[in-house]
Design brief:
The protein is built from 10 helices and 14 strands. By secondary structure, it is α/β, with parallel strands linked by helices.
Length: 343
């Protein structure tokens, strides 16, 4: 029996519709990041340790039926945007069919996927036909040698095929580039040139402590924001739209935009509208918490939708104000690998 067919029949007692999920700080939750696997075909050094990666047994990963049930339940509670993440989503067999199932949920208005691009190019026609609302492509460098140093794999040609395929099909595209301590200015300029040539959003991401290694507490000598302003002095802030983790900038002569995600500085917490569910079904109301609700235990323990909805509401109502406060209250000796969380 395949992994996505395991599980007992789903007890279904619909939770009542309401004014949505609102946390104890008045923030409305409308965005779910749903991780469907902790597996990945890269080994990026900022995301997981070089060796000793302990992947979750398949039986402990939520089935596609369980994942779909959670999305349907949360959509009733006001979640309208869903992003499928991993690991790398396309390493899980059945990912595309799962996306197609989620598109049948009327109240999910915006379905997105985050991918490293290694396996994605062959699915682009299907994603275009599906009407995917956005693809976030992880790409930290255009230099093949550096790509190997960062990812510990030699898959840059496949990632670039996905990049070109998205551009050619005019799929809504954001390129996410993590800026490391040894990322050179020339790499940032080369990546930014993608946004000069094409109508995409190139977003530079401040490195966050989720490599599965012991935290060092090291701080960059110069902020990423200052570095970008030095490299691109003509940056013009774009007027904010919906809540976003990114500061968006227009640049004269660019077809697209540049963005800055200050993940480690946590400057976007005041407007955070998202929750996460990990591959093993832990609800996270902040990237920096240790998981606040074991949804898998409820799903497999026979809880109905009303009971799960009540538990989710209670968890959201106990949210810390921001990531810094969360980190202070959820101390850990080692930072988890991002693949175990969902990007």
């Amino acid at each position: 029996m395949t992994a996505h067919h395991r599980g007992s029949p789903i007890p279904h007692v619909s939770p009542p519709r309401s004014n949505g999920l609102i946390d104890n700080h008045g923030r409305r939750i409308t965005y779910l990041r749903l991780s469907i696997t902790d597996r990945c075909n890269l080994r990026c050094r900022y995301c997981m340790p070089e060796r000793g990666v302990d992947f979750v047994p398949h039986a402990e990963i939520l089935t596609f039926e369980e994942l779909e049930r959670l999305v349907r339940l949360l959509s009733v509670l006001g979640v309208s945007k869903v992003r499928i993440t991993g690991g790398e989503p396309f390493v899980r067999q059945g990912c595309l069919a799962f996306l197609q199932r989620l598109k049948t949920i009327d109240s999910v208005y915006s379905l997105h996927i985050t991918t490293n691009g290694v396996e994605t190019s062959r699915h682009l026609d299907s994603l275009a036909e599906l009407g995917i609302a956005g693809i976030n492509l992880s790409l930290d460098t255009l230099d093949s040698g550096r790509f190997w140093q960062i990812s510990r794999r030699n898959h840059l040609p496949e990632v670039l095929a996905t990049l070109d395929g998205c551009i050619n099909r005019r799929l809504p595209l954001k390129v996410n580039a993590v800026v490391l301590e040894d990322t050179e200015d020339r790499e940032l300029i080369a990546l930014a040139d993608l946004a000069r040539q094409h109508p995409l959003s190139l977003r530079f991401i401040e490195k966050m402590p989720f490599s599965g290694a012991r935290s060092t507490g090291a701080k960059a000598s110069r902020s990423l924001r200052q570095r970008l302003h030095d490299l691109f002095p003509e940056l013009v802030p774009v007027v904010a739209g919906p809540p976003s983790t990114a500061r968006i900038y227009a640049v004269p002569g660019f077809a697209g935009t540049l963005g800055l995600i200050e993940g480690n500085s946590r400057r976007f917490c005041a407007t955070c509208n998202k929750i996460r569910i990990t591959p093993v079904g832990m609800l996270k109301t902040c990237l920096y918490d240790n998981g606040v609700l074991n949804l898998k235990a409820m799903l497999r323990g026979g809880a109905d939708d009303r009971e799960i909805a009540q538990a989710v509401r209670a968890a959201v109502a106990r949210r810390f104000r921001d990531g810094l406060e969360t980190e202070e209250n959820c101390a850990r000796a080692n930072d988890p690998a991002m693949t175990s969380i969902g990007g």
